[in-house]
Design brief:
Helices cover 25% and strands 13% of the residues. The protein is of the alpha+beta class and 103 residues long. It has a three-stranded mixed beta sheet.
């Protein structure tokens, strides 16, 4: 989870970094989903370089919308890892992401 993706008009170094790491995991055969915020005229769902991008919420609502999207749809997929890429404000994933290897 990150508040922006590589295509966001305000994307910067954090978004470049997370995208580079994600596409390397894809090249090694992993399925990668990035949950992030929306921006004007963007697609809600898109695949870029093999990374599934899911955009929900805006500047202030991305955090609550990400939690809602995860709880209602994504947790059914049983991800091996959920990464909360903190850029100022965390997504507070430990409060709602549970798993068999959670520490």
């Amino acid at each position: 989870m990150n508040w922006r993706d590589i295509t966001h008009p305000w994307a910067g170094g954090a978004e470049v970094h997370i995208h580079e790491v994600a596409q390397r995991w894809v090249r090694r055969g992993h399925e990668v989903t990035l949950l992030c915020g929306k921006y004007q005229n963007c697609l809600n769902d898109e695949v870029i370089d093999g990374v599934k991008i899911i955009r929900r919420g805006g500047l202030c609502t991305v955090y609550t919308q990400a939690m809602k999207e995860y709880l209602w749809n994504l947790r059914k997929r049983e991800y091996d890892y959920v990464i909360d890429d903190i850029n100022g404000v965390p997504f507070f994933t430990p409060t709602y992401v549970k798993g068999r290897n959670w520490r």
